[in-house]
Structures are given as C-alpha cells and as structure tokens.
Amino acid sequence: MQIERIHTLDDPRLEVFTGLTDPRLRNRLEPEKGIFIAESEKVIKRALAASCTPISFLMEEKWLAGLQNAIADATEKAASTNAPSSPSVTIFIAARTDMERLTGYDVTRGALAAFRRSPLPTIEQVCKNARRIAVLEDITNTVNIGSIFRAAAALGIDAVLLTPGCCDPLYRRALRVSMGNALKIPWTYIGEDVKEASAHGNVARAGGWCETGMKQLQQLGFQTVALALRDDSVDLDDPALKSCDKLAIVLGTEGEGLSDRTIAECDFVARIPMKHDVDSLNVAAASAVAFWELRDRCHA
C-alpha cells in the first residue's frame, strides 16, 4: 500500500475517477473485468469487507485515518490468498478543492475507491438456501435500486434478481444509497440474453424475462407474488402468502409497474392496503412494506 499526495487531477492514474462516467466504467471491459466506484467511508469499508479487489483510492486527507487500517488489512488478506502476489494499491490524497472539481462527480463525502467487479453468480448460486427473494423488473432509477437493496438487507430478503432492463446496483449512486448493501445481498440477473443485456445496457421487452426466468424460479421451488393494483389482488397480509415456504416478491418499474405478462405468470397478485385514497407507493417504499410483511417468520 502506497500513500501519495497529489496536486493535480491530470495524473493518468486518476482516469478511473476523473475521466469515466458510470456507464463507461461498466462497459469499458466485459462485466466480469469491469470496475465500480464506491463512495464514502462506510461504503468503501463494506466493499473491503466483501473481499472486493481494490484498484486505487482517492480521498481528502481527513478520511485517511479512518480508512487506512481497513485498506491495509484487506490488502494484506488478499496478498496472503492470491497467488503469486497482489499488486500494490495506491491511496491518492487530494485537496478538497480538487475533489470538488472532479468531472462528472458530485463528491460530498470526500472519499472514493475503484474496485474490480467480481463475476456474476448463477441464479442457482444466488438462491441456494434462500426462502425470500426479490425480483426487480426494469427498475431504472438508481435511488430506488439502492433503497430496495438497503431494505432487502434490513428486512431479511435472502437474494435479489434483476431483469436485464434494471439499472446496475453497483452504479456509484445506487451503491451509495444502498449504504453498500448491494455488496452484502447476493444478486444476479434473470432472463434470456442476460450477459449481453448486462454488458451493453440493453432493455429487454416487457415481461420477456418470464420466458426462462419463471421456469427457473419454479424449478428452485419458489412461488411468486406480483405487487400490482388489480381487481383480483389479495391484500398483502393474506395468509396464503405467509404460508409459502419459498416466495419470490416481484416488483415493477417506477411508472408503469409490472408488465401484464409478468402478472399473469405469477402465482399470486397482491397489493398493500392503503387509506385516504392513496393508490400507490413509490416502489422502494412498497418494497420495504412487502419485505417486512412477507418475511420468513419460521426461519427468522
């Protein structure tokens, strides 16, 4: 580990922070060889705790004391397990005024870290031993994705599956909003052409993931419940839902909700009972209510 104080952001070693937007960070290389940016001391520490491989760090001086030991411990652990040796990691220290000038970044928490992405696991790996999972269909808002992952971690969801039309949980803002919990909850993509879609940001047709995804969920023993405002919806506290041994909670995009095809393919359709003529909640808020109400009480 090296500490280097810099006086300009023109150093080519800082390109990962200064010259690449989040989509380019994701698409510059194949996903399994790509990069993500962690922002804030808490998120960086969670990335290190999740054994993510750091590339470099950029921070104000005041954050060094709080992060230096965690970085040293993580790099020492990596050096002891990775053959033949781990590359040296540099911590770049910059002035606050330079941090504020970073192109494309509104840095409010003073510390950034670039990490290598790990290969995505399979659906079978993600869902092994899981009893409550969330399936997210075409949710594109980074704040909602981050909030859903945070709620999933807090309220006992074992895994998250995303259709190819969803935004990336490791986008800088989504990861920050999740408080790093997108690195703690197992997740992967579900549906056809997943690799191509996740690499290039392609949006699959509405409900297209059902062609293969629903069959996979059934083979893994999951019953599915769609959250949707329909005449045939049962209340979220319906006993039939709570009695499911393994349940996948399916949530739709912010504006349109779930596709008709997805709703038709699910075993149940449920809604959150509401008062004062409120017809719906933001998908992140709805997810938290659903996760709590449908939590696995038998194996808590």
Radius of gyration: 21 Å
Total number of beta strands: 12
- Give me the number of helical elements: 13
Largest sheet: 7 strands, parallel
* Low-confidence segments: 194-204
**Considering DSSP H and I runs of 4 or more, what fraction of the residues is helical?**
25-40%
Q: What fraction strand?
A: 15-25%
Order of helices and strands: EHHEHEHEHEHEHEHEHHEEHEHEH
Cross-sheet strand order for the largest sheet: 8-7-6-11-9-12-10
Question: What structural category do the secondary elements indicate?
Answer: alpha/beta
What is the global morphology? elongated
Mean pLDDT: 85
Measured between the Cα atoms of the first and last residue, the distance is: 41 Å
Question: What descriptive keywords fit this protein?
Answer:
alpha/beta, seven-stranded parallel beta sheet, 13 helices
Description:
- The protein is 35% helix and 18% strand.
- The chain is an alpha/beta fold and 300 residues long.
- Strands 8-7-6-11-9-12-10 form a seven-stranded parallel beta sheet. Strands 1-4-3-5-2 form a five-stranded mixed beta sheet.
- β6, α7 and β7 (159-162) form a beta-alpha-beta unit.
- α3 (41-49) packs parallel to α4 (64-81).
- Residues 194-204 have low confidence and may be disordered.
